[in-house]
């Protein structure tokens, strides 16, 4: 079934690895079953087992069941199997029905947490180039996450080819989670004030193509961006003492709240973040023009000062002279 599923189109290595892991888990849980004899009750029992033994949250269970369901779905469509035990599964049954905040759900950053992250004592206290993909990846990726709401992997893949200056500075997400993820995002004016366009020009002048030249993973089926994700999450949890329910992806949640609080229309911030809409009419046309999105995104303001990142020198070592010449303050 796995081989058959892989024949339709090119699958991402990480997705194949996840599928292999799930198949092994299901096979171990149901050692006397074949795909043709797996029932809906078996699927339910396996998902419950995942919850009880691995502590999986409802969203994780839904992700696992949906991925396994995709494998069975291909076989059913081509009449290899008669039924898909994961089809139309009701994952809401695993959601706690009473209003209890367990503190485990992923949260947006608070204003106080953001101020600490982007302070001389936070991210800007680490000037060495080693760790997390280097100084500039550790600084600019969180800043881009805050002011665009883009996913870490989307930002980690950025190259010079993703940036355009006409009709205004913006970048294109050319590869994403789904079709709605492919979009154009204007740069927030504060990113420009902090020197991001200067950083892009410095990357170009150094002969680099990737925006984060030191962001590289050694894992075969891992994304380069995971290097920054692990470093950032470790930094805010261990160094800053933040709870486990905030991680890099919390920037995406934070951006959505910033848009709501700035009264940016829902369909506009959906377009900015690559979220799909349930309204059929929203799928017609090309969406908002970049100029309109730029006008909307300017409404987002923060009540604290963000230091200006050090310039890119093309070296893995940030010199004392460069650091002294660029104090940590917004000009």
Description of the molecule:
- The chain has 331 residues and is mainly alpha-helical.
- It has helices at 2-6, 13-29, 40-54, 58-77, 111-117, 135-148, 152-156, 189-193, 196-205, 225-239, 250-261, 266-273, 290-297, 320-325, and strands at residues 163-164, 170-173, 183-186.
- Helix 3 runs antiparallel to helix 4 and helix 6 (135-148) packs parallel to helix 11 (250-261).
- The radius of gyration is 22 Å and the shape is elongated.
- The model is unreliable at 99-103 and 318-331 (pLDDT under 50).
**What percent of the residues sit in helical stretches (DSSP H or I)?**
40-55%
Number of contiguous helices: 14
CATH architecture of the largest domain: Orthogonal Bundle
Which range does the strand content fall in?
Answer: under 5%
**Which series of helices and strands comes N to C?**
HHHHHHHEEEHHHHHHH
Briefly characterize the structure.
The chain has 331 residues and is mainly alpha-helical. The protein is 44% helix and 3% strand.
Topology (SSEs and partners):
Blueprint: H1 2-6, H2 13-29, H3 40-54, H4 58-77, H5 111-117, H6 135-148, H7 152-156, E1 163-164, E2 170-173, E3 183-186, H8 189-193, H9 196-205, H10 225-239, H11 250-261, H12 266-273, H13 290-297, H14 320-325
Antiparallel strand pairs: 1-2, 2-3
Helix pairs in contact: 3-4, 6-11
